[in-house]
Design goal:
Helix 1 crosses helix 2. The chain has two domains: about 60 residues; about 35 residues, no CATH class. It is flat and about 65 Å long. The protein contains five helices and no strands. By secondary structure, the protein is mostly helical.
Length: about 120
Amino acid sequence: MSKAVRIGKIFVWAVVIFFIGFGIVWGTMYLWNLLIPDLFHGPVLNFWQTLGLLVLAKVFFGFGKGGHSRHSPGPWKNYWREKWGQMSPVERDKFKQKMKEKWCYRGESGSPSESGTTNV
């Protein structure tokens, strides 16, 4: 692949990324200005304020898959899998019952008398 072709591909990708970013910011600005001022009497944002808001949200809510996410199992998955595998069926049933009692599990019927709680 020649140097000119490589530079051309980089330029095309840069333009595509620019327009995708512009579209995301513009779409967010449009939705914000459509909804927030009428619903919550919030401010109307311009393009640069919307870009700043998106960057701020990215700083607050993360840049990637670091830490836990709903897709990552977390550090305790292997521990509990191993522990569960070592339990006998009687121990498993006892553990399940303890968790049901601890978390006010209502079971399939959903009656409050079975769980020990009342809605007064």
